[in-house]
Amino acid sequence: MAQLCPEGSEGASYALFTTVANAAAMSSASISTMLLGIWDVSEEAFVSGDTKGMRNLTLLTSSIAMTGILFVGLLPRDKKDLEALKMGSFTMSKLGGGLFLGVILFSIIFAILDAVVNIMFSGW
User: Fold this and answer.
1) Which of 4, 41, 110, 123 is least crowded, fewest Cβ atoms below 10 Å from its Cβ?
2) Distance between CA atoms of 98 and 85, rounded to whole angstroms?
3) What sign results for the dihedral spanned by CA atoms 111, 117, 118, 119?
4) Which residues have a Cβ under 8 Å from the Cβ of 46 and sit 6 or more positions away?
5) CB neighbours (10 Å) of residue 74?
6) pLDDT tens-digit profile of 56-113?
7) Residue 57 is inside which H or E element, if any?
8) Given a cut of 70, is residue 121 above it in pLDDT?
9) Within 10 Å of residue 82's Cβ, how many Cβ atoms?
10) pTM above 0.70, yes or no
11) How many other C-beta atoms are found inside a 10 Å radius of the C-beta of residue 32?
């Protein structure tokens, strides 16, 4: 990652990477809680022996978690590919930068609102 960032901005790049990771972790926790309502995963269902909801939810969340594998092919294979990526035409894309910032801001706002709702309406 450090080889892709501009000279002198390695710290800012690391801070941005950390922000993305934290926003994703907070958003995923909230989204996974919302997914609990899709299938019956209550204690009563388990006591009665109905584990179909847990199986379906496990398959869904595992499938979502594994979607990152689809993007492995986009990674540079060697140092030559890395340099080509660094000098490519997409390094200063305003559309890509705007989309990236939009997703990050949405994730942060979502996480903050979710925390506020959880504080104000405990157990919603």
Assistant:
1) 123
2) 19
3) positive
4) 54
5) 7
6) 988 988 888 888 899 888 877 888 887 777 777 656 678 878 888 898 888 888 888 8
7) helix 52-65
8) yes
9) 14
10) no
11) 14
